Amino acid sequence: MDEKERKPLLSIQHLDVVFGSGKKAFKAVSDVSFDIYKGETLSLVGESGSGKTTIGRAIVRINPCSAGAIYYDGKRISGKLSRAEDREVVRKIQMIFQDPAASLNERATIEYIISEGLYNFHLFKDEKDRMTKVEEITKAVGLLPEHLTRYPHEFSGGQRQRIGLARSIVMDPEFIIADEPISALDVSIRAQVLNLLKKFQREKGLTYLFIAHDLSIVRFISDRIVVIYKGRIMEIAETEELFAHPMHPYTRSLMSAIPIPDPILEKQKKLFVYEPDRMHDYSKEQPELCDLGNGHMVYGSLSEIEEYRRKRFGA
């Protein structure tokens, strides 16, 4: 389906998130706009501190929006909502947090942690139905039934991340924000968790916002990629388009940091360093996010956008 005909499931429009006030105010996210379509995986990529998690937390209403709006299925979910509307947002949108240790209640058993959403929204007929759901999702994420009576501190980082995944999926959400869900995991476990996410997407028709800093991983899970730097979007494109034609110098710097599995080639590789003060002169022209064509959007001044367009499509 053509992108213009598709209706976004989630739409972020001119979002600002500011922490503190007065002289101590810090703008973590500045004028961010993008859409996520039903059934797709959109990845938000950037280095640490670029505002990725802040955007994810703004969607689930942990971080308040200072300006702009967030719409889910056509309804505004940022700002003040009624209790019923707030519950509906929580029910439909779930988040897998970056730090599995901090996001799990150390005093609760795994059975209770996974069941908490079921209890809060009464998503089961009786106790037998609840236990069936908990046991099925536990098995689906690769944990054992005997794990249900244990506590979070008894598990490894990878197992805790699976518990967090089970807690989100058991509620049958429509949209999941996966905040660096594999950054704390061993390389061998990463593929298993990514395969699990794709499996649930196929079976349940889930939509993902996948937050990461590693472009090599998002290539294999994403339909589209949003590149963010210091709270601003630098580039948006379909995955293969972005890897074939990275336009913004910051995107190219992220690409150059992807490790090469061959040690000889890795030693010879030259890193491309992004230096915004040297590479851009915005004293005469104000930069903005512009569409080059093919849905490929890049942040830059008019002269830069013309240069990017020439590079991408020829004169």
Characterise this structure.
This protein has 315 residues and is of the alpha/beta class. It contains twelve helices and twelve strands. It has helices at residues 52-59, 83-92, 110-121, 127-140, 157-169, 187-204, 215-218, 239-244, 249-256, 263-268, 276-279, 302-313, and strands spanning 8-19, 26-37, 41-45, 67-72, 75-76, 93-96, 175-179, 207-212, 224-229, 232-238, 288-293, 296-300. An eight-stranded mixed beta sheet has the order 6-7-8-3-9-10-12-11, sandwiched between helices. Helix 6 links the parallel strand 7 and strand 8. Helix 3 (110-121) packs parallel to helix 5 and helix 4 (127-140) packs across helix 5 (157-169). The radius of gyration is 21 Å and the shape is globular. It starts with 7 loop residues before the first strand and ends with a helix.
Mean pLDDT: 89
Low-pLDDT sequence parts: none
Major beta sheet summary: 8 strands, mixed
How would the global form be characterised?
globular
Number of strands: 12
Instruction: State the end-to-end CA separation.
Output: 29 Å
Total count of helical runs of at least 4 residues = 12
**Helix-strand topology string:** EEEHEEHEHHHEHEHEEHHHHEEH
The CATH architecture of the largest domain can be named as: 3-Layer(aba) Sandwich
Task: Give helix % range.
Answer: 25-40%
Taken as a percent bin, the fraction of beta residues is 15-25%
Walk across the major sheet and give the strand order: 6-7-8-3-9-10-12-11
Task: Examine the coordinates and then state which fold CATH places here, giving the name of the CATH topology of the largest domain.
Answer: Rossmann fold
Count of domain modules:
2
Look at the structure and give the CATH class of the largest domain. Answer: Alpha Beta
Radius of gyration: 21 Å
Structural class, from secondary structure content? alpha/beta
